[in-house]
Amino acid sequence: MADQSSIKQLEADLWSAADVLRSSANLNANQYCMPVLGLLFLKYAYGRYKRVEVELMKNRPSRGGVKMPVTAQDFRAKSALYLPREAQYDYLLNLPGNIASANIVDEQKRQLTSLGDVVNYAMRLIEQQTDQLKGILPDTYNIINDEVLAKLLRIFNNDKLEQVGGDVIGRIYEYFTGKFSKAIADDDGVFFTPKSLVQMIVNIIEPSHGTVLDPACGSGGMFVQSGDFVNNHGMNANSALTFYGQEKVTFNARLCLMNMAVHGLNAIIKSGDEANTYTQDAHNLVGECDFVMANPPFNVNGVEEATVSGSNRLPFGLPAVNKDKEISNANYLWIQYFYAYLNETGRAGFVMASSATDSQSKDRTIREKLVKTGHVDCLISVANNFFYTLTLPCTLWFFDKNKREQNRDKILFIDSRNYYTVVEKTLNEWNEWQMRNINAIVWLYRGETDKYRNLISTYRMWLNDFFNRYDNAALQPVEKSWQTYREGIEATLACFKGNLKKLEADMKATRKRKEKAELKELVEETTMQVAEITEALDVINQLIWLVDKFGEYGTYRDIPGLCRIADISEVEGKNFSLTPGAYTGAEETASDDVDFTARMKEIHAELEKLQNESAQIFATIKANESLLWK
């Protein structure tokens, strides 16, 4: 996962690109948003193209001592988008100021004389590589003068784009809409789902084959992460999976298709009125999906009863209807749709408003019927501030129609509201290791202890590599335990931080140019080392968090305040509430060996003393007040 400081710097760079267009090109937000995203697409596609090209050339057969050139088919086999030379980012970046002198001709043999025309041509060449991009990429670059467009190309020549990963286009687009033009997106950017939530859903439902549906697909983040999941397991995503998406907002659907193309993925995406999932089953996939995943809009009202009544996507009945013949809250439309789309062995994972786990009236009746199917697998409570522009908490829901027999009448509840990483004041996330740890709880619930033990091995290998690179006495304790290793990392970090502080002071104090340059290099090197050691401290903290709860070899147990496996009979006893906290209870706290009765007597004595002092102070104030008014 990319370093958040890198992402923040990237956003600042992209905002400067928007500033260039606002100040220099006389364009409004609706005109420049898509061209900016098009350049983002082009740069990200080029970075992926170069990485795949290097991989393809490693064992490339030769003819006459010359390696055979790569083809578009080679890139498709690697789930990557092929880019003709004239559509490659470095080609556009290095064009001369006088475009006419480059003698570039387009597909109709017309000579191109402006940079805008050349970029438009590049977009058309890319569209020719895959049918799903036909008419999708922006083609208005000739409304931007060459000087401004060249400056934008330089701004976007930023390797940090490749570090973001996942739904990079969706994330940056939401940043833009949140920053300067929410009017562009009908959904105010809520279509974007944070990477850690998407990855958690993908990791738990494990979409490895068959039909994958996202009926609220937005910019396609669920598909991108599913593709990565399959590719990382040594398979080809386009061969293993068939992606279907619905997205009512056409602009968002264009972003989804761009996102899919840049990751070399094929998808069937429908948009506009025919893709309004409230009322339309655009792909006729009821009962056909191996995997369903989504982040639908929360708590929507106003869906007309007549448009959904009698739908074969509502196996448990219609939610509550108000006096205006409208669905009062669409959450349980979505929940039933996700369930209805699954085939007999399908899995679903989706984001939902936290209120849906305990809502009453007809929602409660629907939830009872859903629970009694035995197909509710797991629910995970998520803390506030995981969304980029929203602060509300949410819950991840998981269905599994092919549970192992031991779990048929059970549900796993995980309350992770106190387990996350603070990115900044209003943004939280799960880091890579936290996601793996939560996933590990699900593995143990499913009896997949081999996956748990592989994770422990991954921790060990990561830390061994770190210890080999930072070999010192503090990292080799006499007592070999994870706690003592952690103490060694903490001591090493304190040492390096002290060195860094001294180097920074020396660099600031010296007036000698050569000495300052040498110190600057040392400061930069030590800063990187402090970052690496800080990361190691987090890794070992996460390992200790996991091992303290479930051991080195993985034995599931209920952990108060974190996780609990509940029988359906217990859920019934709680009026079919699916709120994780109702089952996990309070977090365990370590005993401090304090005599509770004695301590309570002390507290009461202290309280009585404070009350007496308060009475005396109040009497003094009243006396002074009476003097004041005399």
TrEMBL record:
UniProt keyword annotations, A-Z: Coiled coil, Methyltransferase, Restriction system, S-adenosyl-L-methionine, Transferase
SUPFAM superfamilies per the UniProt record, alphabetical: S-adenosyl-L-methionine-dependent methyltransferases
Superkingdom as given in the UniProt entry: Bacteria
Coiled coil: 486-536
GO biological process, one term: methylation
N6 adenine-specific DNA methyltransferase N-terminal domain mapped to chain residues: 10-156
Pfam families with a match to the protein in the record: HsdM_N, N6_Mtase
GO terms, molecular function: methyltransferase activity
Catalysed transformations (reactions): a 2'-deoxyadenosine in DNA + S-adenosyl-L-methionine = an N(6)-methyl-2'-deoxyadenosine in DNA + S-adenosyl-L-homocysteine + H(+)
Entry EC no(s): 2.1.1.72
Domain annotation DNA methylase adenine-specific: ranges: 166-452
Gene3D superfamilies referenced in this protein's UniProt entry, alphabetically: 1.20.1260.30, Vaccinia Virus protein VP39
Entries under PANTHER family matching the protein: TYPE I RESTRICTION ENZYME HINDI METHYLASE SUBUNIT (PTHR42998:SF1), TYPE I RESTRICTION ENZYME HINDVIIP M PROTEIN-RELATED (PTHR42998)
Similarity-based family: Belongs to the N(4)/N(6)-methyltransferase family.
Annotated protein name in UniProt: site-specific DNA-methyltransferase (adenine-specific)
Organism: Heminiphilus faecis
Lineage of the species this protein comes from: Bacteria, Pseudomonadati, Bacteroidota, Bacteroidia, Bacteroidales
